[in-house]
Write a structure and sequence with these properties.
The chain is α/β, with parallel strands linked by helices. It has helices at residues 8-12, 17-24, 46-64, 74-84, 100-111, 126-134, 151-163, 187-200, 223-230, 260-273, 279-290, 294-319, 345-354, 385-402, and strands at 32-33, 94-98, 117-122, 138-145, 148-149, 168-173, 203-208, 237-242, 253-257, 325-326, 334-338, 357-358, 360-361, 375-379. β6 (168-173), α8 and β7 form a beta-alpha-beta unit.
Length: 404
């Protein structure tokens, strides 16, 4: 009976398939999971944060326990500007949000009408696909190569869509240690992509949860920095930065930076949805930056995670049959496996559960109707070194047993 009251959007809205899959394997004794996107609790700076929370509430409670500004805490925004070192940005270029997905929603809500096209990498982050789907956008995916989104295929896709009368508004991308594939866009490709989007009047939404989790190799400038510093086109890119994989996802701290007019419209949506981000947590984050904790903490996280990535890559190399391929990221928290085209990872998911190992099937990271089924995502940051060794061995044995 209650279903008759639901809006049309609610009737078709999808829940997080990843959360459902993770729940389906919960409480299985002895199961090793590479499925979630969880950072290791060992990396949470609990001691420093617990002191800061106590100090902030005790010393500044009259301020931070009150309603706050919809655009975010002024102290935190000031610290973020100092931390990132932009000299031509002001607080009007920034807003803080309750996690990065909120920022993705506000940006999408600000610019997309029903049926507008948003372009994305294939595969891409399921959480963003859910947002775009809820707004009834037309999500079109473009495959990647080992340098990022394929520009030739992107050019062809844009031409086809425009010939069909489609309005293309935004390109969504995760350039660094992409979720789910682990691929990082090359510097050359970053410049080529930005120049193309500038020519074609396509805004860029840069999702950046992972760029600071680099364990090896050369740090690359974000798309926003290239557009702002080198191209002198700061309106082209809106960058969304999450601290979920750095401070802890439970804090729900993220920020967006971009054109002040667009940021202002995003703030208007935040005002309607959340009123304000968590004032206490924002001020704690501000004090964390002001105390000089962030950069040393990021360095420690990278040192902590590198052996886990190395172990997973070593185990894949030694255990996996020759018909399996995988990405080799230099950071982040995920890598991606390609199987032969006639192997379906959705079906393999249930067999793997019986072998006490689990992953996320790759099809969940594609828009509906554009899925690939011969692929999977593995997370290396939540399991122990021993679990990685045992889990990869179990997965390899399963693949060998069904594909000889």
């Amino acid at each position: 009976m209650i279903n008759s009251y639901f809006s049309e959007t609610t009737k078709v809205m999808k829940s997080s398939l990843i959360r459902e899959l993770v729940a389906a394997t919960k409480n299985v004794p002895g199961l090793i999971s590479f499925a979630g996107g969880f950072p290791s609790p060992a990396t949470f700076p609990k001691d420093v944060l617990s002191k800061l929370y106590a100090e902030v509430v005790a010393d500044e409670g009259k301020d931070v326990l009150q309603y706050g500004a919809s655009e975010g805490d002024a102290q935190l925004k000031g610290e973020l500007l100092k931390w990132e070192g932009y000299t031509n940005l002001t607080p009007d270029n920034l807003m803080t949000t309750v996690g990065a997905t909120n920022a993705i929603y506000y940006l999408s809500r600000a610019v997309l009408n029903e049926g507008d096209v948003i372009l994305c990498e294939a595969p891409t982050f399921l959480g963003s696909l859910v947002v775009f789907d809820a707004l009834q956008a037309d999500v079109q995916s473009i495959p990647m190569d080992n340098e990022g989104i394929d520009l030739n295929l992107l050019t062809e896709k844009v031409k086809q869509l425009r010939q069909a009368g489609k309005k293309i508004k935004v390109l969504y991308t995760i350039p660094d240690f992409q979720n789910p594939a682990g691929i990082s866009m090359s510097l050359k490709r970053r410049h080529e992509l930005l120049n193309y989007c500038l020519r074609e009047n396509i805004l860029v939404m840069e999702d950046n949860p992972y760029s600071r989790l680099r364990f090896s190799g050369e740090e690359l400038p974000t798309l926003f920095r290239i557009a702002n510093d080198e191209m002198q086109h700061p309106f082209l890119v809106t960058e969304i930065v999450s601290f979920s994989k750095i401070l802890g996802p439970g804090m729900r701290v993220a920020f967006a930076k971009g054109n002040p007019e667009l940021i202002n419209k995003m703030v208007s949506w935040q005002q309607k949805v959340n009123i304000t981000p968590d004032c206490v947590t924002q001020r704690v984050a501000a004090k964390y930056f002001a105390g000089g904790h962030m950069n040393p903490h990021i360095h420690l996280i990278c040192e902590f995670y590198k052996p886990y990535l190395d172990k997973m890559l070593d185990c894949l190399n030694s255990e996996m049959p020759g018909f399996v391929q995988w990405t080799k990221p230099q950071g982040g928290i995920f890598l991606w496996l390609w199987l032969p085209e006639d192997l379906n990872a959705d079906k393999l998911f249930f067999s793997a559960k019986d072998h006490l190992v689990t992953f996320i099937p790759g099809s969940k990271f594609y828009p509906e109707g554009q899925e690939k089924y011969n692929c999977m995502r593995l997370n290396f940051t939540y399991s122990s070194i021993e679990q990685i060794e045992t889990g990869i061995k179990r997965l390899a044995q399963l693949l060998k047993s069904i594909y000889v």
